[in-house]
Specification:
The protein is α/β, with parallel strands linked by helices. The chain is 50% helix and 15% strand. The chain is built from 9 helices and 5 strands; from the N terminus they run αααβαααβαβαβαβ. Strands 3-2-1-4-5 form a 5-stranded parallel β-sheet, with helices on both faces. α3 packs parallel to α6. It is elongated and about 95 Å long. The site of magnesium ion has 7 residues, from loops. Magnesium ion (MG) binds next to loops.
């Protein structure tokens, strides 16, 4: 009887333990995800992965510029946030939360640093006599002055054009961004490289090559 009781108790206990440890289900735990992003940034892997893409873009742009046909008007398109300007410190100060009011204050403060590799590429493109067109989902008129101020403050004032979204635009970023590139090509510019951190910066064509830098923080369509 004692053995049967002990066995019964064991089964109950085992069942209870099992009930307390359910199988892992659902999405990745949010704290784990944030820790992984922090490690990616702090280890230097983010910067290394980022620079690898920028260096590839630079090699292509230099190669392509060297065999430019006479009269060919070459252009490079770059995105701004998480491509030229680095918002990591703001994003991490809020533990990766996106708070529109705080984001707005951050953008208006015009203090985002430039990614060093992107800045070097920007300057190299201009040195090669290639047009540099910035296409950003930041809207105008509201964000034009602060965006220009931020770029100039980082030594990035020599863009050819800064194309922003109208505040009234409600469509997909990818659609408008590719339409803007199409209109540049229609004007006779040849876009040899398009560089951004989101698929929506790059999809839809109108560029000889596209380069996607990593963005561990957010995804926009
Ligand atoms: Mg971006």
């Amino acid at each position: 009887v004692k053995i049967r009781l002990a066995f019964f108790a064991f089964c109950l206990l085992a069942g209870a333990c099992r009930a307390q440890v359910p199988a892992e289900r659902g999405p990745q735990n949010l704290s784990d995800a944030k820790n992984a992003v922090s490690r990616y940034c702090d280890s230097g892997d983010y910067r290394r992965d980022f620079e690898k893409v920028i260096f590839e873009a630079r090699a292509w742009i230099e190669e392509r510029a060297a065999r430019r046909s006479p009269g060919e008007r070459l252009a490079v398109v770059m995105d701004i946030d998480e491509t030229l300007l680095d918002n990591t410190s703001h994003i991490r100060s809020l533990d990766y939360a996106y708070l529109p009011v705080e984001w707005d204050k951050w953008v208006m403060a015009a203090k985002a640093p430039a990614y060093a590799a992107s800045k070097a590429l920007f300057l190299r493109v201009r040195e090669l006599g290639i047009e540099l067109v910035l296409i950003t989902g930041r809207t105008e008129p509201k964000y034009r002055a602060c965006t220009q101020e931020n770029l100039r403050g980082q030594g990035l004032g020599a863009w050819s054009r800064l194309l922003m979204f109208p505040a009234t635009y409600r469509g997909k970023a990818a659609v408008l961004k590719s339409e803007l590139r199409a209109s540049l090509e229609k004007e006779g510019l040849r876009i040899i490289a398009n560089i951004g951190d989101q698929e929506s910066d790059l999809s839809g064509g109108y560029s000889e090559r596209s380069y996607k830098v990593p963005d561990p923080f957010y995804r926009s369509n």
